[in-house]
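Quick one before lunch.
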Amino acid sequence: MTSIIDPHTHSTASDGTDSPADLVRAAAVAGVTVIGLTDHESADGWEAAGAMAASLGLGFVPGIELSTKLHGASIHMLGYLVDPDNIDLAAEMGRVRDARLIRARQMIEALAVDYDISLDDVNAQIAEGATVGRPHIADALVAKGIVADRTAAFRELLHPRSRYYVTTFAPTPHEVVGLIRNAGGVPVLAHPGRAVLSGRLTDAVIAELVDAGLGGLEVWHRENSRDMQEHLRQLADKHGLFVTGASDFHGTGKPNRLGENTTPVESLQEIVRQGHGSKAVLP
Ligand code: AMP
Ligand code: FE
Ligand code: FE
Ligand code: ZN
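Model of the fe (iii) ion complex:
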């Protein structure tokens, strides 16, 4: 049987709209045979997702997605098979999550000057214990009838050049690669296209990240253009990195469909070979 491997998705443990169990059910319906859950700064969905995957006969790859910043540019790093209880990793995730809360309050305060929106409205959109992000503010703006959907909320009010935008703390990608490796995990640069185009994620920086322990590049992702995918594939070749692809599914919060991009089985095998902080279950 051929494997359909989609290892990068988000549940209500962060900014996705499906519960971890519902997400795995939807993955099965979409024909995915190995699903990865990579919530922002959270492993809270692993247990429920893993249990549902086991009951449906799907493979499961536990992961996280960590926000990093380099010279002001946002760079996301996937961490597969980390030990989420590793002290240093857990502390850093805690710092980023705490900062996200303060930042969300600041953005809501700024928005409240011009729009009828409050902290309570946003809290109503966040599952207990979830990592908070702009998508939750977007959901409150939608619920209040201020914008039509998340896409419009980001386009009109929440993008980085908006007057309502507030930056938030994130460690450097170099630090995060080290944290993930030290927690037994495998670091993979998520949707690197935009950061490469911004001029911040240069070939030299990628070489530094490889020295720090980077394992792979997420090549097949809807935010990477065809030309970018070719460029990333060549970079991966040059540096001996494996290549992945995934949907980055966020439920109804984004148009991304489960299984729209997938990872070669050889790359999944490489993740399993390199990672030892937690266990993947293969079908
Ligand atoms: P934050 O983590 O608060 O900086 O928000 C970034 C998150 O917002 C990303 O992880 C995406 O899931 C989501 N996001 C970014 N742009 C959009 C968009 N145009 N539509 C829907 N979600 C988006
Ligand atoms: Fe997200
Ligand atoms: Fe991301
Ligand atoms: Zn993501």
